[in-house]
Design goal:
By secondary structure, this protein is an alpha+beta fold. Helix 2 crosses helix 3 and helix 3 packs across helix 4. The protein has 2 domains: about 170 residues; about 100 residues, left handed beta-beta-3-solenoid, CATH 2.10.270.10. It is built from 5 helices and 16 strands. Keywords: Repeat.
């Protein structure tokens, strides 16, 4: 078994139990307070960030397989394998047929192949033994039947001669995994700005990031938040038009606010004291 295939199988195993969310909050959590049936996943979010159609909120069994493939061999090779319409199981099948990668039902697949089911569902073949195929699949649920909209990542198994199997997408993996370039710094994307951590290549999410002298807040999708109030640890902050946390005087909807040097809105009564030059100073705004 190649190191690339080892990497793919280990990645798939690490995703077992991941559950779809009702919205874009807490997408990185395997399970969390926003679990539900809304078809929102980190897999769709990540593919969308790469410029691919992730379709967050739609059925995601094929999107999950594309995510595994991109993480293992890179975006370019993944598109060659699963095709530009990777989000549609039957389009993946048609692409495999057109490129000579299709293996008809009844044959024995290899590890790393993708199995396509009649129910418009797709899974990764992780093992073949005892007349059965063992799979790792997204948007399914536990049990013996093919489930195409179950909301979880699960390991399952089926008889090789299961009538639900249409066939397999043949995938060959190189000995060594492809070196994935890591994104770094600011990136303007369709819906705004993201900041990528050069150490991991991942965008900052649900966190503050300091760039120079300015602080920025990024939401769960990794997008910079701007032109809005944000409550963090019992304090209110205002993020300006450029996304930077505001300090000092802020005017919002015609109303006047004062933020201290840490960006927190001043809400308690204050006593204004003159400095040595006679200028009035707000507490927390000195210097």
């Amino acid at each position: 078994m190649s190191k690339t295939l080892d990497k793919l199988l280990a990645l798939a195993e690490s995703q077992i139990g991941y559950t779809e969310k009702n919205n874009d909050k807490d997408l990185d959590a395997a399970v969390g307070p926003t679990d539900g049936n809304g078809n929102h996943t980190k897999y769709a979010r990540d593919l969308t960030a790469m410029g691919l159609p992730g379709y967050c909120g739609a059925a995601w069994c094929a999107v999950y397989q594309m995510w595994l493939e991109v993480k293992t061999v890179g975006k370019e090779q993944a598109l060659k394998t699963l095709g530009p319409q990777f989000y549609n199981c039957f389009a993946v099948r048609d692409h495999a047929k057109a490129t000579g990668r299709w293996l008809a039902a009844g044959a024995t697949p290899k590890l790393g192949y993708r199995v396509i089911f009649r129910q418009s569902h797709i899974a990764l073949v992780t093992r073949v033994a005892g007349g059965r195929i063992y799979t790792n699949e997204g948007n399914t649920s536990n049990g013996t039947a093919v489930v195409r909209n179950g909301g979880m990542v699960c390991n399952k198994s089926y008889p090789l001669k299961d009538s639900s199997i249409l066939g397999y997408v043949m995938v060959d993996y190189p000995e060594e995994p492809a070196e994935q370039p890591k994104r770094s710094g600011w990136s303007q994307e369709d819906s705004g700005w993201k900041f990528y951590n050069g150490d991991t290549g991942q965008p900052v999410r649900n966190a503050w990031y300091k760039d120079g002298q300015d602080w920025y807040w990024f939401d769960g999708a990794g997008m910079m938040v701007r032109n809005t109030w944000y409550q963090y640890k019992d304090a209110w902050y205002y993020l300006g038009d450029d996304g930077a946390m505001c300090r000092g005087q802020v005017t919002v909807d015609g109303k006047w606010y004062i933020m201290d040097n840490a960006g927190r809105m001043i809400v308690e009564p204050v006593v204004l004291m003159p400095d040595q030059n006679g200028a009035l100073q707000y507490p927390g705004l000195a210097g």
